[in-house]
Design brief:
The relative contact order is 0.14. The longest helix has 7 residues. The protein is mainly beta. It folds into two domains: 238 residues, YmcC-like fold (Beta Barrel); 97 residues. The two termini are 23 Å apart. It is built from two helices and 23 strands. Helices cover 4% and strands 54% of the residues. Strand 6 and strand 7 form a beta hairpin. It has a twelve-stranded antiparallel beta barrel with strand order 3-4-5-6-7-9-10-11-12-13-14-15. It has a four-stranded mixed sheet with strand order 16-23-22-19, with no helix packed on it.
Amino acid sequence: MLPKYLFYLAFGTFLLSGCGLETDEDSDEESDSVTSVQMEVEQNAYLPLTNATTLFYSLVGAGDPGGLETLVTYDISLSNSKGYSVYRLALQNSSLNLDLYFRSTTNNIQLIGIDGPVTLDDVSVDNLRFATPVNLIGNTSSRTINATADLAGSLSADDAALTINYSLSNNTDESFTSDDNNWVFPTLRAELDMEITLTAIGGDPMQLDMTFDFTKGLGIVSHSAVINDAADAAYEIRFYDLDKLPNIIVFNQDGTEALGTSMVFSLADPDTASDTPITSTDYVIVNQNELDDLGWLTVDVGSITADAFDIQINDDPELPSDLTSVQVLFKKRNSEERLSANVTLLAL
């Protein structure tokens, strides 16, 4: 089931160059001749992406909790080329060098490309770009698309034509528990299995299987890849913390704060002595009506900290007994900037 809450990212009528408006229609038609794109699009609650923010992950086996700093940026060049908003997640440290490119829409989450290089067998694959975006929501038993990539190793070519056959399965019965600081979230899991073949020569396909776990209001909480059905993942990352985004709020079933979080919404900012409260002077809540419809939670202003948004759990017959996450979506009053917050209710 698609998320009810949508993450809206817009920068008014600001154009990166020329004019043009992105729509939220999914299409197999791609264009490399588009020279402009307007940054105005509804995003999926399972993957809210905000330019110039940071997510911290732990790389499994690296022994450095939160050491993988992942910068989220709006990719101007690729967005202009495709004609819609594309974001880059740069997962880079001394042990992992990987860029993932995504489009997030109302109806889907799409994987646009991968920069590595990623080594498959004895072939190094870099600058992988899918001619048709790979949807990460919606079960698919078998689909064939074209792609290009730079290859090195036993096969060497720039901008080589590839044929990719993939399958996708989703599961909403999963949950994520962090190894380092006790975060617990319900997730939408996307399992993507790809067989990659060099179009010109065919031969045995190279296998790349990727798993993504998404959480409402936050985004990717875990991701891993397996190459050629190996027994162990080539890499696995797990969510640790965030920066320049609203701090996560977690509640127990009785409405008390959990996991050391606060009922007051605040913006994670390492440049200040304490995190900055999100205030009604600076922000409004975009999805207030949807939150009010839930009944079992209430968002208020100033009841704990002057002018700051806070949230409380109500004694309500519809209070979920299962692990539940919702998105609270803030919009800055003096611009179209959006910030997505995750609020999680622990299971009974």
